[in-house]
Amino acid sequence: MTYDVIVIGGGPAGLSGAVALGRALRSVLVIDSGEGRNAPAEGIHNFLTRDGMTPAEFRAAGRAEVEKYGGKVIEGEVVSAVPGFEVTLADGSVHRARRLLVTAGVVDVLPDVPGLTERWGSTVLHCPYCHGYEVRGKAIGVIGTPGEEMTDHKMRLWAQWSPDLRLLAQDEIAAVEEGGVRMTDGTLVARDYLVVTTRLEARGGFLATLGLEPVEHPMGIGTYVPATDPTGRTAVDGVWVAGNIADPMAQVITSAAAGLTAGAMINADLLPPAPDKQ
């Protein structure tokens, strides 16, 4: 069948957009790779009435709502999308739609320090608004470059949550271990939690076949797929973006709001043309 809309990405933006479209009686297929950016986190925060809900619980509840309104959710990795729109998955299956909503998100690329990746989302953190309250008063190490503007900003920001803050120069770190950071001189700096700045890489390589590719973000934080207007419309007719792929710094609640906006605009775009006025 040809769906009204295929949503690529089953995070807060994609599920929210799919619910809006389902409530508008549109046929919707959500394709989710199952690689949610916030999957390692213990819970989501700053989402009114959903504080502390695990990412897995949030996704399960969102999928159930999509299906409640007639939408379909499948697991799969999109490898290409061509004008038409014809979407091909890694397993070779092909799905078609009249419009696309791309909410595939971003990947956090961590600094090249042994031991960081294994602790990502547990004792290695990046966002004070996501995790600051939970680690308040703990011994926190900020990994960065002394004198760098972003590092200075993070030190001042995280000081709101803990007085026990220490800057750790990235080029002087040998490895992250249980209970702290091993420096190149052999000393162990005891820390309960570490803060890092990640590079945010948009999951948008499959859009190249549509003539739409991720570009460098103007803030220098990574790559994103820019929208041409606040609704998420892109430079490619019939394709919208929402969530972290379009706004890498968006939190769960703002991503969900962006998905709702895009879904409503896609529904309006699918309306039949207005009759000619005499």
TrEMBL record:
Record domain FAD/NAD(P)-binding: where: 3-144
Native species: Paractinoplanes pyxinae
Recorded catalytic activity of this chain's protein: [thioredoxin]-dithiol + NADP(+) = [thioredoxin]-disulfide + NADPH + H(+)
One Pfam family, short name: Pyr_redox_2
Keywords associated with the record: Flavoprotein, Oxidoreductase
InterPro entries: FAD/NAD-bd_sf, FAD/NAD-binding_dom, Ferredoxin-NADP_redctase_2
Protein name: NAD(P)/FAD-dependent oxidoreductase
Keyword Flavoprotein among UniProt keywords: yes
